């Protein structure tokens, strides 16, 4: 019976091991669920909507095939539709109850995109979607492109070639499936253990059989037999001859050991998919990862989403920093105009003109991209959009942080820097809403602040011109305002260094830059404004002349004039303006100043 039990154990072990291995091979379910679509070849853009991307749970592996360059990006569905506008595009979606993706060519208006704030892009804007600030992430390839993303609902994907040639025609989306085989591990391990038990039983049976063949003693006596002739005495059995039985046992052992070894080798490849998993506790369950950050606020449904996410803004500022660094080094006026506008552009263009003639003239403030201290996007689903951010150089704490005010005029336009200022040392930056919620834009003429945003430039200009005699002096905090102290010191130095044959006059007035304001948690606002200061030097004696020097001479091109020279300095200023009725004062947060023009008086 021992041999029977051993054979049964070996058979059961083999069955269990074979079944365990078969679950991970011939019976294994596919690791992915895939859907595909063939896109008509007469569309320049393909939009894979949220329903197609989130048809199944888990991350999405997107494969795009075409005959040329391939561009793939994803962003908020409304932003993707707004970028496409009224252009002809192929919509890839998953219809309810369908088991395959469908693709058809249509226009944004046909797809319900008329509700988007901007359905028709302005004429002359780029047709290539690559590099747009709307995308959360983008990918490029040629011929074929495969990428894995993990996006939630309300995220769509745009596919194109170069915006001119037809878009790629084959698109497939796949999702990982749970093909775990929780009984494969127990079957293989159980089979290996059963094989070991069978081996023990087999050896036990062999030993028992050997012992049962030994000499028997005290046998009962039978009838007396007649004596037989004496047989020759048998030879003594040598010890070496006894080992024959042992070698047979070793051979039997060698036949069974490979079974155990195979089981052990199989187990070395086991993963968690081979074993039953305990039910997840409520504390370990997590939501599907979102792309980079939360895209919509947790407030009421009618609150517009923030214009950008933090990772999206980091990417935008990184591009701006690269452009500014290269343009500043090469004095490239065309390149800097692709990322700057308004007072920030005006100041940099003048700086380039001066540095072209004065090599050691100081460059405009750099745009760091290393660490973000504050991100305040506007709550907006439409355009134009505004974002404020404060960036500092992580490797050099001595460099003052830089505050940027960015605006995006349309869906196909990139964010441009309107204002770039360095913060005052120890400036009390007000508390603002989280970047995942954003802040409302404050209209320029709103009366809910100590001063409406569009009146702050005029009020501060009056203070620069009249000092404490200004009627607005009490509304602005003087302590910590190093800009006013710097202006007063410069004006005094210029007056004392002027020859008696000339006179100098100073003035200040609101500049052409817009007043841009975003709300803060204290019901106040962060306001960026533009002020232009003028410096007019005239000869006072007949026949006398004025000879500008330095930056003024570089911009004006005048070596001497009997009429006089007027130089204009552009000031970019950032303020915190308290709410109306507050006892707090308007505080200067940061500034940037630079000579923007110098010309002979008419």
UniProtKB/TrEMBL annotation:
Residues 278-306 are annotated as: Disordered. Residues 280-302 have a biased composition (Low complexity). The chain crosses the membrane at residues 183-207, 253-275. This is DUF8094 domain-containing protein. It comes from the Bacteria. Residues 306-592 form the DUF8094 domain. Keywords: Membrane, Transmembrane, Transmembrane helix. Pfam families: DUF8094. It comes from Leifsonia kafniensis.
């Amino acid at each position: 019976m021992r041999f029977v039990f051993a054979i049964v154990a070996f058979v059961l072990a083999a069955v269990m091991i074979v079944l365990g291995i078969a679950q991970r091979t011939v019976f294994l379910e596919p690791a992915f669920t895939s859907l595909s679509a063939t896109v008509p070849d007469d569309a320049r853009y393909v939009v894979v909507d949220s329903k197609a991307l989130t048809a199944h749970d888990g991350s999405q592996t997107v494969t795009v095939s075409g005959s040329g360059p391939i561009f793939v990006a994803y962003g908020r569905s409304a932003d993707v539709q707004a970028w496409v506008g009224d252009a002809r595009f192929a919509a890839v979606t998953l219809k309810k109850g369908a088991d395959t993706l469908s693709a058809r060519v249509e226009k944004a208006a046909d797809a319900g995109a008329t509700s988007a704030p901007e359905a028709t892009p302005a004429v002359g804007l780029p047709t290539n979607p690559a590099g747009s600030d709307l995308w959360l992430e983008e990918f490029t390839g040629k011929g074929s492109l495969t990428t894995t993303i993990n996006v939630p609902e309300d995220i769509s994907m745009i596919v194109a070639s170069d915006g001119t040639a037809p878009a790629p025609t084959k698109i497939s989306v796949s999702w990982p499936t749970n093909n775990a085989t929780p009984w494969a591990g127990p079957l293989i391990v159980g089979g290996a253990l059963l094989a070991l038990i069978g081996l023990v039983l087999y050896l036990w049976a062999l030993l028992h059989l050997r012992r049962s063949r030994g000499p028997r003693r005290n046998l009962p006596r039978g009838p007396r037999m007649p004596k037989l002739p004496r047989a020759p005495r048998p030879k003594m059995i040598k010890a070496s001859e006894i080992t024959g039985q042992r070698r047979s046992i070793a051979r039997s052992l060698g036949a069974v050991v490979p079974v155990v070894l195979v089981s052990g080798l199989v187990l070395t490849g086991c993963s968690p998919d081979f074993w039953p998993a305990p039910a997840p506790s409520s504390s370990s369950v997590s939501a599907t990862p979102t792309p980079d950050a939360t895209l919509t606020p947790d407030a009421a449904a009618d609150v517009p989403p923030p214009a950008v996410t933090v990772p999206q803004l980091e990417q935008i500022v990184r591009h701006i920093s690269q452009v500014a660094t290269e343009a500043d080094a090469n004095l490239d006026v065309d390149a800097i105009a692709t990322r700057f506008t308004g007072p920030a552009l005006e100041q940099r263009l003048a700086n380039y003109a001066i540095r072209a003639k004065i090599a050691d003239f100081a460059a405009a403030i750099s745009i760091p991209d290393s660490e973000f201290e504050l991100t305040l996007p506007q709550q907006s689903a439409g355009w134009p959009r505004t974002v404020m951010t404060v960036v500092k150089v992580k490797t050099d704490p001595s460099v003052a942080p830089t505050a940027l005010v960015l605006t995006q005029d349309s869906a196909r336009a990139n964010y441009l820097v309107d204002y770039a200022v360095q913060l005052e040392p120890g400036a009390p930056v007000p508390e603002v809403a989280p970047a995942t919620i954003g802040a409302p834009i404050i209209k320029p003429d709103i009366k809910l602040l100590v001063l409406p945003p569009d009146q702050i430039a005029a009020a501060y200009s009056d203070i620069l011109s009249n000092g404490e005699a200004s009627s607005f002096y009490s509304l602005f905090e003087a302590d910590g305002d190093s800009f006013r102290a710097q202006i007063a010191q410069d004006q005094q130095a210029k007056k004392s260094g002027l020859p008696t044959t000339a006179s100098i006059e100073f003035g200040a007035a609101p500049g052409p830059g817009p007043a841009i304001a975003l709300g803060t948690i204290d019901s106040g606002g962060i306001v960026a404004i533009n002020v232009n200061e003028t410096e007019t030097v005239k000869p006072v004696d007949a026949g006398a002349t004025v000879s500008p020097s330095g930056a003024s001479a570089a911009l004006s091109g005048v070596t001497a004039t009997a009429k006089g020279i007027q130089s204009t300095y552009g000031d970019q200023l950032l303020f915190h303006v308290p709410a109306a009725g507050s006892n707090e004062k308007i505080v200067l947060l940061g500034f940037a100043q630079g000579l923007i023009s110098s010309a002979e008086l008419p």
